[in-house]
Write a structure and sequence with these properties.
Helix content: under 10%
Structural class: mainly beta
Largest sheet: 5 strands, mixed, barrel
Low-confidence stretches: 1-6, 150-155
Distance between the termini: 22 Å
Strand content: over 45%
Number of strands: 10
CATH topology: Cathepsin D, subunit A, domain 1
Radius of gyration: 15 Å
Strand order of the largest sheet: 4-5-6-7-8
Length: 155
C-alpha cells in the first residue's frame, strides 16, 4: 500500500467536523450497511427563510460529556426511514459540509434521536461513496482529526 492509498482509507470510527453547523470534534461511526447518514438531533422545528424551508434543531455531540449545539440548515426533504429493527420513521433531511481528514464534501443527514446509541453521528454508504472513501473495519481513527472549521487543503 502506498501513501496515496492511506489518504482514502478510513476506519470503523473517525473524527469529523460539520463546519457549516459550527460543529468540530465529533466522533462518527462508519456504517456501510446504512445508506443514509444520521445525526442525533432534538427540538426540531421547521421555519421559512428567504422563501425556502429550513429546520432549526439541537445537535447532541457528546456521549460521556454531553454537549449541545443549536443549529439551522436548509431543509432538503423529509424521508421515510426503516431502521435495522424494522421501525419506520419520517425524518427531516439536511445537507451540510462534512470534514473528515483533509477532505470536505456535502453530505445529507437525517435528523433523529440517537440518545441510546454510542455514536451521535452515523456516516452511511452514500456519503462514503460521495467522499470516495475505502473502509477498513479493523482500524479506527485513521484520518487526522479536523482541527478547525475550515480545513486547509480541503477537497
Amino acid at each position: 500500500m502506498n501513501n496515496s492509498d492511506l489518504q482514502t482509507i478510513i476506519g470503523l470510527r473517525e473524527w469529523i467536523a460539520l463546519p457549516e453547523l459550527g460543529v468540530v470534534g465529533l466522533r462518527a461511526k462508519i456504517d456501510t450497511g446504512a445508506s443514509t447518514s444520521a445525526l442525533h438531533a432534538t427540538d426540531i422545528s421547521e421555519f421559512e427563510r428567504g422563501g425556502k424551508r429550513w429546520v432549526r434543531f439541537t445537535a447532541h455531540l457528546g456521549t460521556l460529556v454531553q454537549r449541545r449545539h443549536r443549529c439551522e440548515a436548509p431543509l432538503v426533504t423529509r424521508k421515510t426511514i426503516k431502521s435495522s429493527n424494522g421501525h419506520v420513521q419520517t425524518r427531516y433531511v439536511v445537507r451540510t459540509l462534512l470534514a473528515l481528514g483533509d477532505h470536505l464534501w456535502p453530505v445529507e443527514f437525517t435528523l433523529t434521536c440517537r440518545k441510546t446509541m454510542r455514536y451521535r453521528l452515523l456516516l452511511g454508504s452514500k456519503a462514503l461513496m460521495d467522499g470516495k472513501w475505502l473502509v477498513d473495519p479493523a482500524r479506527t481513527y485513521v484520518q487526522e482529526k479536523p482541527q478547525t472549521l475550515t480545513s486547509p487543503g480541503a477537497q
